[in-house]
Structure formats: C-alpha cells, structure tokens
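Supplementary notes for students who missed Thursday's class. We covered one full example, reproduced here. Read the sequence, then the structure, then the short commentary at the end.
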Amino acid sequence: VADLNNIRKISQSSEIGILDLTNKLTKIELKIKNLLSILEQE
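Structure (token representation):
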C-alpha cells in the first residue's frame, strides 16, 4: 500500500512539474511574439 501511495505522489508531482513547464513555455512564447511584433513595427 505504501508503494502505491508513493507512486501516486510521484505521478502527481511530475504532472505539476509538466504543467509548470507548459505555463513557462507559454509565457516565453508570448514574450517572443511581443518582441517580434515590436521589431516588425520599426
């Protein structure tokens, strides 16, 4: 039973890590798009 609980905790934390990564990537993508639009305007 303890093993199952540990596996669940690990899978939950990895899911959170993946969500965090996708959030960061989305923010970076938005920043890049903003920079590109600024460069195109000049």
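Commentary. Residues 1-41 form one domain. The radius of gyration is 18 Å. If anything here is unclear, bring it to office hours.
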